[in-house]
Amino acid sequence: MYHFFVQQEQISEREIRIEGGDVNHIRNVLRMNPGEQVTVSGMEGEKEYRCEIARIEEDSVTLKILWAQDADTELPSHICLFQGLPKGDKMELIIQKAVELGVYEIVPVATKRAVVKLDKKKEEAKRKRWNAISESAAKQSKRMLIPQVRPVMDFAQAVEYAKTYDRKLIPYELADGMEKTRELIHSFGPGDSIAVFIGPEGGFEEKEIALAQ
Predict the structure, then answer these.
(1) How far apart are CA 12 and CA 48, in angstroms?
(2) pLDDT digits (tens, 9 = 90+) for 185-202
(3) Rounded to an integer, what distance in angstroms lies between the CA atom of residue 4 and that of residue 16?
């Protein structure tokens, strides 16, 4: 069953109105008809709606809500992936798989050893593409929300943003090893928010690790 995301203001008591690019997708790509059923989530991901297509018009699709239920398919913990910018198009695959695995949000990080350097114009285009990939992966894996790919941050900004999370992890080749990692992960509880930093191909500089510590 096809799954779509809408803004909260598009949801009323009995109907949901789909607008934008999804209208063309429903009409001309999927070639759906009134009477067919779809599932819908609001951007906040709090509820899932089972709907029936009522009307397909030029610029909108009106859905009749059949029933709604609380979303229970998301992970109990919010996980944020702080990803050092990799070479080439690797970031696209990382975003796709991270969303499929359940991350809550993704922060691209411009680390010292990252080969990729994005100016504002390139970053804006890349981020638009990255968020489109996140939305597509969220639909494909039937997520209840679309994880946001945030603007690129430098390492100091990323560390500051990570303070909003309960737990912070950096896999680092000069750290204590897998046994310590297992102990840390086993100490996490349901509902803990978790920030995970992954470096680029060249890894992290010692100064970056010191700043994070």
Answers:
(1) 14
(2) 888 888 899 999 999 988
(3) 11
**Last-in-domain residue among 70, 105, 123:** 70
Q: How many CB atoms are located within 10 Å of the residue 159 CB?
A: 20
DSSP type of residue 89: T
Which tokens belong to 139? 């639909």
Let me know whether 114 and 205 are in one domain.
yes
**Torsion sign (Cα): 149, 127, 41, 138:** negative
Domain containing residue 54: 3-70
Does residue 207 share a domain with residue 175?
A: yes
Total of domains in the chain: 2
pLDDT score for 129: 95
pLDDT at 171: 87
Same domain, 177 and 119: yes
pLDDT attached to residue 169: 92
Cα 47 from Cα 39, distance rounded (Å) = 10
Q: Are residues 61 and 90 in the same domain?
A: no
Whether 103 and 186 share a structural domain? yes
Per the DSSP assignment, residues forming a β-bridge with 47 are 70
51-103 tens-digit pLDDT:
999 999 999 999 999 998 877 778 888 999 999 999 988 999 999 999 999 99
Q: Are 34 and 56 in contact (CB under 8 A)?
A: yes
